[in-house]
Design brief:
Radius of gyration: 31 Å
Number of helices: 18
Shape: globular
CATH superfamily of the largest domain: Ribonuclease H-like superfamily/Ribonuclease H
Structural class: alpha+beta
Number of domains: 5
CATH class of the largest domain: Alpha Beta
Strand content: 15-25%
Oligomer: single chain
CATH architecture of the largest domain: 2-Layer Sandwich
Helix content: 25-40%
Distance between the termini: 71 Å
Length: 506
Amino acid sequence: MLTMEHIYHIRYEYFEKDKSIREISRTTGHARETVAKYVEQEDFSLPKPVKHKRRSKTDPYRDQVREWLIADETAPRKQRHTATCVYRRLKNQATADNKSFDISDRAIRDLVADLKRELGQQKQASLPLLHPTGEAQVDFGTTCFYEMGIYYEGSHLALTLPHSDAKFTQLFKGQNFECLAQGLKNIFRHMGYVPTVIRFDNMSTAVKAIKAQGEREITDNFRRLQCHYGFDSNFCNPAAGHEKGSVENYVGYSRRNYFVPVPQMDDLEAYNRELLKTCDQDLEREHYKHEKPVWQLFEEDKAGMNPLPRYDFEVCRYVLAKTNQYAMAKLQNNSYSTAGNMARQEVTLKLDAYHVTVLDEKMQPVVTHKRLYGKNKESMIWGPYLDVLAQRPTALKYSGFFQGLPASVRQFLGDCDLDGKKQVLKAVAQTCREDGLNRSVNALSDAVRLAPKDADALISAYAYVLNKPGQIPKNDVPDYVPELKEYSLDFTPYAKLMGGVACSSK
């Protein structure tokens, strides 16, 4: 199986250098069928994982240590990281996060030495850059905002087209690959075109390592994004932000003009769609140099760009996580609920910029959470747990689900016996799977306001509120209740009296 780097090389040779499939096959050693397959492939969205490879002990810390060493380029020489300092900092960080750190100082010294060899390079003078049509620059900037009243220290992705000075931005809660890919996807789709070349800094979401002579080892996910959209990438030298001065300036410009005062919204995805429309208004201004509207120059940029691919790129990443005894899965120091039958096992999480979806063994969604950013946060969705609560009604009073119910519902359920609690929870669990937890709880609250006398009456009222009486499970009938025979009514005498025909009803 070819790596994404090999696939990228095949497509580059074919589309950029106009080499034939036969020639590429001869020079690369790959079968012509293989070369043709990847030339013709259009969708490079990440497939669902089959098996996850185990990483080495130092691999999880490699990107972090690389960022520290790159930041050292701008620090005084006597205030740069040594291997000992890196080891101590990583160990202290693990202790603060209540995580184990079973890596030797020797392993960290080897890691630091390896990274320093990769990052060792000559300082080069700044050169003026040309700005052909269809080329772009991308960077992140820090931006605070509120969503549903919750404060986030987020980031905005900025993209500029230096030729026309057209600019677009998107707001996110982080700077991970999913945020980068989603932001680019949104902007590409909004423009209707894809830049031919995009200049980035050495963000860890795209660059695994900087090698000798400035070569970059690119992450697999970023190569997949490139293959799908067909753009080439340039990366700045470390600590050389001036090499993408257009977007560097725009990061501050967009923060001052779009995010003051601090934005407040109910839905970040919807906000980002409106934000792109706001960016369109900026196209009406006159270009600072060419004395014509930016939108006219933007049309020239479009002529130099590539069309959108036929297939939509699915922005996602799959990770494995272990659940605890409460069936909570931990991801990046945050916890997500799964389902009552998924305790103490390995589960697959599907991540995008906005959501975390728990998948079952068949890779089907179990529950979807809003993705948490920060540390030590928890997202609890009780719907998948209700079946377990129905089997253990004694635990209801001590659950977070019970505490989150309206006071009237808590009082009613508190007065029910165990069998009553069980029947109510079974009914709510059933409708929750179809209508969602919020609607089910709201219907339950409305049913309580109808003043039912017992659990049976509450379930009937609940069915009435939902207008789905046939879908609510029937209450169990005790064994001591006798089975009644079907009773028939004969309306013949009444019909004769009224001069009608005879009839009967069961």
